């Protein structure tokens, strides 16, 4: 047994067991630290697992929580509030995954380390914890983001002593974590390399690329040359570097090389494992980063056992160290682990914070209210209307913009359309779509949409977003009105000069537009690096810009009814009169 250190946390003493070793079934040992109260007794344990390094998580004892845009915010301090967990009489167990921190073994790719499923390691880790004298045999899990995804992977393995999980801000569909609508997202680079305000993975020397393992040097050279033919990739210095020197950035190299969905991502997709989960699951997510809401809702729908879905308020980024949602977490674990009948299961399964009205809406499913998808049409003079355009293209000439590559300009061109001011509260909850009829003069571009709630005083808040790479425009048979799906399994180049309909998925949201407010939609092919929303995100939380000059014509005439399809919970819509 490791020597016990102590820590004074505001007058309360915490016992710390440093650098314990948990053996995995293949002989690899994972390093861990344990924090618990001073009374010598077994307690339930909350396990936190990630590749970010257990020493970094210990800063939760000494660093006041930072909110974005604090320069001290570090996206990897996500294991939870150690002092609070100990105060609630749980043991906080923080471990390093194989190939990271002080643990042994190799790290290859993501979620499958050294050829071993990280869920398998989590099973062994949890069962080892349950057998220790400081644990009473009851185990839950804690932590957001990567730590949250690990909870799902662990639960799918069904370790006997895991009683429940509480997941906040998790990442699930790994393709959607790295490519939004087929557009590469840079945040995974930050998590892996430590750029943009993140410490990154605490890699050891035993890190390998799955692509390098799978392909011969000759095959890999040809694949890299093909990837560099993408003008967007070839124009971005970091990607050119990664592709030419893959051994320096193994995990990021694998992501960049796999721009299409398929087997490489499916073996890393916790959602495909959801039917195996039988423990109670509480899922929590805040609004403002729509793809995480989308994945959380998808996971919730796949779960068969006791479950809760809690969608919180904007803004999108929690504190680091992570301290939010602990009250809800302890209610959940007190019920399922300590057996305290606190009424948590008597409450509705779904709870959603509605921006605008600042109210909670509850129900048994998502969306928690009946929804009717209705259209707002893009009209001339940058208007949005419930009525479609009656004039043809010869009179309702298309809107348009030319975007030069960011290699030659730092200006991002943005088109916008707005409703008239709402005359009464108008509530929208659910998923939406944008049907954009567009003509471009290249084989590809991005369509980036952002919906805003614009107040009369000029302030505005982001409501939801949508992304689509034009060559990924194919839809699959899951698509319904207001709920499009793209398979992202192949690219279909655009015929320059041809008008195409692009159906962009608008991520889930919940907002009430108050009287006097307007709904504004923005369309661009790149995104501004700093504005009211992006200032709340880490510096790397943007998408790969278009690397070629593109002229876009946006048609919204009688023959080309470009429109938004939005989830109204009431019949009154923008522009209707008594």
TrEMBL record:
Xaa-Pro dipeptidyl-peptidase C-terminal domain location: 330-565
Any one Gene Ontology molecular-function term assigned to this protein's record: dipeptidyl-peptidase activity
Keyword Translocase: no
Keywords for this protein: Hydrolase
Domain of life: Bacteria
Classification via Gene3D superfamilies: alpha-amino acid ester hydrolase ( Helical cap domain) (1.10.3020.10), alpha/beta hydrolase (3.40.50.1820), Galactose-binding domain-like (2.60.120.260)
Keyword Hydrolase tagged: yes
Protein's UniProt name: X-Pro dipeptidyl-peptidase
